[in-house]
Design a protein that fits this description.
It is a multi-pass membrane protein. InterPro entries: ABC_transp_permease, LivM-like. The protein has about 325 residues and is mostly helical. The protein is built from 15 helices and 2 strands. The protein has one domain. Strands 1-2 form a two-stranded antiparallel ribbon.
Length: about 325
């Protein structure tokens, strides 16, 4: 077995400092519209990185990421909602929940934990499936969550959703969670546990013969990805200051999967680059769509990019690799 890849830590420290400087400069220079686009790009990076843990590292094909976003988003919204507005919009809310209002950070963490627990519960039966069966099962889970949110009027306000949420999300919060998601993804990938995930992805039979617990590893990958998806849902809800059941659809699942596939299944840097690319393309075409009232150009562009990537570079932009400057030495046979 090859030894672990070594990384020069100073490069990561430098990148973090550069990011801090960029955020400080952006808050001074850019207007609210540009700042909101950059914030959306950061949330997309969190989503791509978290799905990469599930789909990229372990080779699962999950379409249920928006469901975990919805769980985290609604939990965070309810826990941070002002008490007077909560009493007005949700008069039938459980009394113990109606009197609770906590800080944004613990609310996001609780939302992420509940999303992870949900992933664990549904992962026990669902992750026994493979391939397109798993994709259909996770898609069904997304639909179940949408229907549940739509009909749970006393807690979610049904199809009307929750509006007037406090605008708590900013670049600093998003950057903090991007760094946290990147760090966790990196530590998992370059560890024995991450190698177990990649072994399952490449050859399940060989991994099982090596003593790797396939089921437990898959469930853990799904739960970890779901935690950060729940956090991203909380950030997303408090950025647009509203949340509805229809916000989390199969189209959103398609967007996140495209980011992972385009960047490269298993590549952390690729997921970040693809998230920036896909989010920027979508926002670039949005003014044109509104001006000419022709909607869907962004989605069509992303679909074309996905088709071209699958034809000319099936492994994605980075494959499963990371850029050379992030890795001190590259050992043969580590990752494709």
């Amino acid at each position: 077995m090859t030894s672990y890849l070594q990384r020069p830590r100073w490069i990561f420290v430098l990148l973090i400092l550069v990011g801090l400087g960029f955020i400080a400069l952006a808050n001074r220079v850019f207007n609210e519209y540009i700042l909101s686009i950059i914030t959306f790009v950061g949330i997309s990076m969190i989503l791509a990185l978290s799905l990469n843990i599930t789909n990229g590292f372990t080779g699962l094909f999950s379409l249920g990421h928006p469901a975990f976003m919805a769980i985290g988003g609604y939990v965070t919204a309810i826990l941070t909602f002002p008490l007077n507005r909560k009493a007005m919009l949700l008069p039938d809310l459980y009394p113990w929940l109606a009197q609770i209002r906590i800080h944004f950070l613990p609310a996001m963490v609780i939302g992420g934990i509940l999303a992870a627990l949900t992933a664990f519960v549904i992962g026990v039966p669902v992750l026994r499936l493979r391939g397109h069966y798993l994709a259909v099962a996770t898609m069904g889970f997304l639909i179940i969550v949408q229907v549940l949110i739509t009909n749970w009027d006393s807690v979610t306000r049904g199809p009307l959703g929750l509006n007037g949420l406090p605008a708590l999300t900013n670049l600093w919060w998003v950057y903090f969670w991007v760094i946290a998601t990147f760090y966790v993804s990196w530590k998992i990938k370059f560890s024995s546990y991450g190698r177990s995930m990649f072994a399952i992805r490449e050859n399940e039979m060989a991994a099982q013969c090596s003593g790797i617990n396939l089921f437990r590893t898959r469930v853990a990958a799904l739960a970890i990805g779901a935690f950060f998806a729940g956090v991203a849902g909380g950030l997303w809800a408090h950025l647009i200051t509203a949340i509805t059941p229809h916000s989390f659809s199969l189209i959103m699942a398609f967007h996140i999967v495209v980011m992972v596939v385009v960047g490269g299944m298993g590549s952390i840097s690729g997921a970040c680059v693809a998230a920036v690319l896909c989010s920027t393309i979508t926002e670039f075409f949005r003014p044109l769509e509104e001006r000419f009232e022709v909607y869907g150009i962004g989605e069509i562009s992303m679909a074309l990019i996905l088709i071209l990537i699958l034809i000319y570079r099936p492994s994605g932009i980075f494959g499963s690799r990371e850029p050379a400057f992030l890795i001190k030495e590259k050992l043969p046979g580590d990752y494709k």
